[in-house]
Sequence to fold (290 residues):
Amino acid sequence: MNLNDLDTFVVVAEAGTFSAAAARLGVPKSTVSRRVARLEESLGLALLTRSSRSFVLSDDGRALFERCGPALREIDDVARDLADSPTTPRGRLHLTTSIDFGSTAYVAQLLTDYRRRHPQVTVQLTVTNRVVDLLEEGIDLAFRTHGATLQSRDDLVARRLGRVEVGAYASPAYLQSRGTPACVAELSEHTVVAHRVDRDVFENAHPQLVVDDYRPLAALLVADAGVGLLPDFVASPMVARGLLQPVLAERPKLGATLSLVWLRSRHLSPRLRAFIDLAVDHTGRVDWLS
Fold:
């Protein structure tokens, strides 16, 4: 089946006459008729029932038009977008990040600024605490926190944005009633609230409350539940509002590197390159990223 013939048939079905289709395609009416006849021959189907002045779609012709018409128009739209401006960001950008980091003002402002600069891009943000396979799930870009080195994969590229530190925090009311611990050893006298990945860092102070996301952990600390560890991107807004205070003279060595990760490709799309550049620019505007 010749795709050019198929496209001509779709135009004929849309236009309603061979003459109108010929005018839209910029070819003689005889060429349009020949292409449609050739398509019918290749399929072994009668797509049109012709009269001396007009035609109607056969059942097979209608089924072909309804199935192929939208697909061909979509292909035309994509080709036109790429040809019109190969350097202008457009299309869809699919991002993913953890739930707690996706809730930050940094991500909200970044996405807002990106859409303001590139209105022809549709952004989809998936927030999840599992490690997403970018290739299998069709995702363009991921924010990831990791240790000194990101697990190496030949098909991935990473761009370091900075380091996120982790500190111990508690509410002013809790500290007023229970005192302020100066070191880890003193935590044995306090109620400890921990993320499940941090539950073993307090040495002899065993957590009494364990959660699997930093947002409810922060809410517990604000509600005077105890002392707990939080990444600075979660704690900073609450410290600024006077809801939490840092404790311990020496910070736990639990910081992580924040990176952007994407699939390796010979050519980055304009929408992806523009987002990476803007994300790097935005990292200089936050005080919790070093």
Notes: The chain has a mean pLDDT of 84. The chain has three domains: 3-84, 91-165+256-283, 166-247.
